[in-house]
């Protein structure tokens, strides 16, 4: 699913024209040469590549050495900060006492703004890596860029030329992956490489110092992921998340655009040799043995299977890679899914990174008909002495699992006697797992939770509430009447994922708290409305599910994301629409919980209210936690970037961004100075203004 | 006192009272009508009752009767009690419940001078 995002924002309306806020736009340097330190780490570890027969012990030695060369701190070497994806930085120069003195050091503009055709379809969600003296990132349309981490000057860029037609739901590139070839000589081209996966489904590898394509990787630096997927339909099969490397194998899934057809591109997850780009293995859950090395001549990977659109986490110690899987195609109807799809949809799957074989899996929804894809990257932790991982879900449940076995280490309960509805009662599960340790999910909605600006729009929402089918969480889809899905498909926790402070023993989780108002549309009505899948007619940039054909199933789907009042654009349910909380890892208790996002940009009919009140807006994008006890986060639709005191939850600093801050921030250090950075690039679905800014702040020198 | 007296003594503000009266009737019909639908759907009775209060207020304002103020005050106090019972101190949730009714209360109270002249 979708990459999506988010949620509906309460309304939009732009505050402050972006360009005015930016005094220091970095000059774009086109020439590729720059002075880079040559201290690129070149571990001398034995090669462990993709070959399946590498002994586990060797693997573990290698990984330790590699990891040592790339600790988080001065660098931000992984999308999730460190290899464990904790988003925790040991830096502590910026504290709650001096954070108020932060000043903008530079603003870098990628220059990647939507063409007229792509207008309204940009959601870059960009998070750079910081390695040595460079920031490494991809723009919305996959231009790879390296900039000087202290000045914002561009060192190089490489544009793979992704066409607008490739934009699936939104133009998104969340990040890039760094890989050091353990066998290459230091300083050799592509000894250290930057790898991304693109919207037009390619893996692209370039040299970290020059941006020149790695000739030995695939075909002149490019591997075509459309290989063995089937007919090329631009925008149906796209990658928006950074691949991960587990012991020399580059692992990627892809986003299969939601809601189009049962006969959709496969959700196959593939591993490639990070040096050569050769296929190491494929995990096609529909034909795992047969297609492990690719499908037989003339065949394609099993179509319509669950995909992984979000970011995986590599565990080099155990040699596993953890895949948060999405749902099958199509999302809201399931009777015709295969047993294998039912087994792995919306599950966390641990694959052996060397072979692509399933080590274990943990399913969070049985027979998902709600588009409850796992959207968050899992975070690796030590839980009471056991190597464990934190798995957040869109329903808000937070599970802690044993990394080696997938067994839950915290209590998992079960909802029973759930309604099965009239559409496919034999398919809908009457039980579902829940976390009894911690959930971000709130109480079921009641009529009194309906909202508006006046009694009249509130009354209208109450009527909508009473007319809908709603029996709490996991209310099954219906067609004669709309049904309410709460939480909606944006979470709970989405791609921004959670941060973990291992020192304080806290999980920091931001979340959405909004329902969707849905209806299955009988095929005949869908045909009358002209709902056709992407392979028959190019899509328009409407929100995920707002009239998706689901061709091949008996129903199309209509989603009112965030359940907004059609007359005013106001949400039908009362605030907060999103929040952030700290959870005690030892007990699962909430330490603090607060709304995230002010009302300043939101109001009825899209008119900004300018109210600095913490209403709690929909939000997308994660946080960074520092050793000094600050949580940095944008994410909300108020276009603010803020620092929150991790002890109290109080906002201790904030600044206005020139565009939406729907991206994960980072923090890093150059020459002893700590920087914080976020991309202000906006988000079409969150209805925040589009931009191309990366902004860095630091304390005055 | 005659109608003639009323018209003469209030020609400056009488039209405003009548306008407010018609606004109350209109809002009352919408809220009462949709509120009736909500009652039929098994929902809150508040809107149906509030609609009746608004229509009554509007009719009485049109008649120039001070009773309009008392009826609306009762409606508003009922609204206040209901709103507190439903969501208490959740101020964002009070926005749709109390803001508009309170603005109407202020408008109705502003009619008191004109309505007093009518009574004289």
From TrEMBL, chain A:
Q: Which GO terms describe its cellular component?
A: membrane
Q: Residues annotated as region Disordered?
A: 34-75, 531-554
GO MF:
quinone binding; quinoprotein glucose dehydrogenase activity
Signal peptide residues on this chain, from the entry's feature table? 1-23
Q: Does the keyword Signal apply?
A: yes
Q: Which family does it belong to?
A: Belongs to the bacterial PQQ dehydrogenase family.
Alphabetized PANTHER family for the sequence: QUINOPROTEIN ALCOHOL DEHYDROGENASE (CYTOCHROME C) (PTHR32303), QUINOPROTEIN GLUCOSE DEHYDROGENASE (PTHR32303:SF4)
Full protein name = Glucose dehydrogenase
Q: What is the lineage of its organism?
A: Bacteria, Pseudomonadati, Pseudomonadota, Alphaproteobacteria, Rhodobacterales
Automatic annotation (TrEMBL), chain B:
Q: Which domain of life is it from?
A: Bacteria
Q: Membrane spanning segments where?
A: 20-39, 45-61, 68-85, 97-115
Which key words are in the record? Membrane, Transmembrane, Transmembrane helix
Protein name, please? Glucose dehydrogenase
């Amino acid at each position: 699913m979708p990459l999506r995002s988010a949620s509906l924002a309460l309304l939009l309306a732009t505050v402050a024209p972006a360009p005015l806020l930016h005094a220091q736009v970095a000059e774009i340097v086109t020439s590729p040469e720059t002075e880079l330190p040559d201290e690129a780490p070149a571990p001398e570890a034995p090669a462990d590549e993709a070959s399946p027969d590498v002994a586990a012990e060797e693997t573990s030695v290698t990984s330790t050495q590699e990891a040592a060369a790339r600790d988080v701190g001065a660098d931000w070497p992984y999308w999730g900060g460190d290899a464990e994806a904790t988003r925790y930085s040991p830096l502590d120069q910026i504290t709650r006492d001096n954070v108020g003195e932060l000043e903008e050091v530079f603003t870098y503009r990628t220059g990647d703004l939507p063409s007229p055709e792509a207008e309204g379809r940009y959601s870059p969600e960009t998070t750079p890596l910081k390695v040595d003296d460079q920031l490494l990132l991809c723009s919305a349309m996959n231009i790879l860029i390296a900039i000087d981490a202290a000045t914002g000057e561009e060192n190089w860029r490489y544009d793979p030329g992704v066409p607008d037609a490739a934009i699936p739901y939104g133009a998104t590139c969340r990040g890039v992956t760094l890989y050091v070839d353990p066998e290459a000589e230091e300083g050799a081209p592509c000894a250290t490489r930057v790898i991304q996966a693109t919207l037009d489904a390619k893996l692209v590898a370039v040299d970290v110092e020059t941006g020149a394509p790695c000739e030995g990787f695939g075909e002149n630096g490019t591997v075509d992921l459309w290989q063995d997927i089937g007919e090329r339909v631009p925008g149906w099969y796209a990658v928006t998340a950074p691949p991960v490397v587990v012991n020399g194998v580059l692992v990627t899934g892809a986003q299969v655009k939601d809601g189009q057809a049962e006969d959709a591109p496969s959700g196959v997850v593939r591993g490639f040799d990070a040096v050569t780009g050769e296929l190491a293995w494929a995990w096609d859950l529909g034909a795992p043995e047969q297609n492990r090395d690719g499908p037989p001549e003339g065949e394609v990977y099993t179509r319509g299977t669950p995909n992984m659109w979000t970011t995986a986490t590599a565990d080099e110690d155990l040699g596993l890679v953890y895949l948060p899987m999405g749902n099958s195609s199509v999302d809201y109807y399931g009777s015709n899914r295969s047993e294998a799809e039912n087994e792995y949809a919306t599950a966390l799957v641990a694959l052996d990174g060397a072979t692509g074989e399933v080590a274990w899996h943990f399913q969070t929804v049985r027979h998902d008909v709600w588009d409850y894809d796992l959207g968050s990257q899992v975070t690796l932790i030590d839980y009471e002495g056991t190597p464990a991982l934190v798995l957040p879900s869109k329903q808000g449940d937070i599970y802690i699992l044993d990394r080696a076995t997938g067994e839950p280490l915290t209590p998992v309960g079960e909802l029973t006697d759930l309604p099965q509805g009239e559409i496919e009662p034999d398919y809908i599960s009457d039980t579902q797992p829940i976390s009894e340790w911690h959930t971000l999910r709130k109480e079921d909605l009641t009529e009194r939770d309906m909202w508006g600006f006046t009694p009249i729009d509130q009354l209208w929402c109450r009527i909508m509430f009473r007319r809908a089918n709603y029996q709490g969480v996991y209310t099954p889809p219906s067609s004669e009447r709309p049904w309410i899905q709460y939480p909606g498909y944006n979470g709970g926790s989405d791609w921004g994922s959670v941060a973990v402070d291992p020192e304080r023993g806290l999980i920091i989780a931001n979340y959405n708290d909004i329902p969707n108002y849905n209806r299955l549309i009988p095929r005949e009505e869908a045909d009358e409305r002209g709902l056709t899948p992407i392979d028959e007619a190019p899509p328009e940039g409407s929100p995920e599910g707002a009239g998706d054909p689901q061709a091949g199933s008996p129903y199309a789907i209509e989603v009112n994301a965030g359940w907004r009042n059609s007359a005013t654009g106001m949400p039908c349910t009362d605030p907060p629409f999103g929040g952030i909380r700290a959870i005690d890892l030892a007990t699962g208790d909430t330490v603090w919980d607060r709304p995230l996002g002010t009302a300043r940009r939101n109001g009825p009919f899209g008119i900004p209210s300018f109210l600095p009140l913490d209403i709690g807006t929909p939000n997308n994008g994660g946080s960074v936690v520092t050793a000094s006890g600050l949580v940095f986060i944008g994410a909300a639709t108020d276009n603010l970037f803020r620092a929150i005191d991790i002890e109290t939850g109080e906002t201790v600093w904030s600044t206005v961004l020139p565009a939406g801050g729907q991206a994960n921030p980072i923090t890093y250090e150059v020459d002893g100075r700590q920087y914080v950075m976020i991309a202000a690039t906006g988000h079409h679905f969150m209805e925040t203004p589009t931009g191309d800014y990366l902004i860095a702040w630091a304390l005055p020198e | 006192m005659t109608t003639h007296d009323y018209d003469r003594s209030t020609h400056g503000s009488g039209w405003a009272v009548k306008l407010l009266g018609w606004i109350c009737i209109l809002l009352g019909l919408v809220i009462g009508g949709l509120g009736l639908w909500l009652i039929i759907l098994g929902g809150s009775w508040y809107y149906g009752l509030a609609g009746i209060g608004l229509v009554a207020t509007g009719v009485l304002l049109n008649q120039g009767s001070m009773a309009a103020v008392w009826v609306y005050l009762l409606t508003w106090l009922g609204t206040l009690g209901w709103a507190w019972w439903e969501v208490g101190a959740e101020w964002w949730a009070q926005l749709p419940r109390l803001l508009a009714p309170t603005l109407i209360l202020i408008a109705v109270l502003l009619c008191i001078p004109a309505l007093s002249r009518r009574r004289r």
